[in-house]
Structures are given as structure tokens and as C-alpha cells.
Amino acid sequence: VSDQGATAVAALEVLLSHAYRVREPNIVPLSPDRLDLGAVLLVGDDAIEASRSPSAPFVHPYDLAGEWRNWTGGPLPLCRWIVRKSLPDEQKEELEALVRRSVTEVLKNPGPLLESHIVEHGLSCSVLDAEAWLRSCTYELGPAEERAGQHLYELHRELHRKVTSWRDLLG
């Protein structure tokens, strides 16, 4: 796995263990000298680039959020904006409104921002491909996303629960 996306790594562990019944999947950090691995998890720009590369050594790309949706029927929340609890409510509301306005404005015309990002990071994807990816994301955290996040958390916690006595086996 790459060094990005801790939530994506947790989702991969849960999918491999629960959906695909892989017993004790061997998930290791990805490095340039480890491209001999049987499978890799790439996130963000790395995933977009690898999916477009004709020399990519992997023949079956999967969209992690798509696989999650196929298995659970729900969304896969991969990130969340958070603020300190101590921030005054008025400032929290202002920040939320600012983020909502920013997302709305970017989605109206994402081309210039995406073009700048592509150039700045030396990506080979087109603005249209990047826009398709951008629009495939959800920018709200509603009840379905909250439930999905809680479900992921519980399944991941279950995978990593340590058994310290027989009582732990009883749940």
C-alpha cells in the first residue's frame, strides 16, 4: 500500500477479510523497489496515473469505493473535515459555509484548478479525466456516509481486536 490514505488501507483490509474472505492479508508499505507485488493499493493522483499507464504491470484495476459499494450497498467515506471542539460555534458555522461555497464554486468550473494541479504535479491525465474523477466523489457527510463510516470502523476494529482472555471470545 502507498503511504497515503489510512482510511483506504482500513477499507482494503476489511474488504479483503470480509468480502473476499482472504485470511490474514499481507499488507505492506509500497516502495519503488516493491513493484513485484501481486497487487497494490494506490490512492489519488497515483491511482489516476497508474490507471492511464500502458506500462502498468497490473491488469485488473479496481475502484476501492466501487468495490465497497458493491459489497455493502453504501458509500465509502474516505476523508472528513474536522475542527477543534473548542472553536466557537459561530466560527464553525462560518468555516462550514466557506467550505460549502468553495466546493460549489470549484464544481461549477473545475477545469482551471485541475489544469493547474496536473501541471504542478507532472501528471499525464487529461483535465477531462481528472474532472470525471472529481465529479465521482461526494462532498457531503450525510446519514448514509455516517453509517458507512461507523460500519467500516466496527469491522476494522473487529479485525484488530486482541484476544486477551476467553471472555473476549464471547464478545
Cα-atom radius of gyration: 19 Å
Low-confidence parts: none
The largest sheet, given as strand count, sense and whether it forms a barrel, is: none
Q: Residue share in helices? A: 40-55%
Report the end-to-end length measured between terminal Cα atoms: 31 Å
Number of strands: 0
Strand content is: under 5%
What would the average pLDDT be, to the nearest integer? 81
What's the overall geometry? Answer: globular
Q: Which structural category do the helix and sheet elements fall into? A: mainly alpha
Query: How many separate helices?
Result: 8
* H and E order: HHHHHHHH
What's the gist of this structure?
Helices cover 54% and strands 0% of the residues. With 171 residues, it is an all-alpha fold.
Walk me through the topology:
Elements: H1 6-19, H2 45-52, H3 64-72, H4 89-108, H5 111-120, H6 127-136, H7 143-160, H8 166-169
Which features would summarize this protein structure in a list?
single chain, 171 residues, mainly alpha, 8 helices, globular
Write up this protein:
The protein contains eight helices and no strands. It has 171 residues and is mainly alpha-helical. Helix 1 packs across helix 3. 11% of the residues are buried.
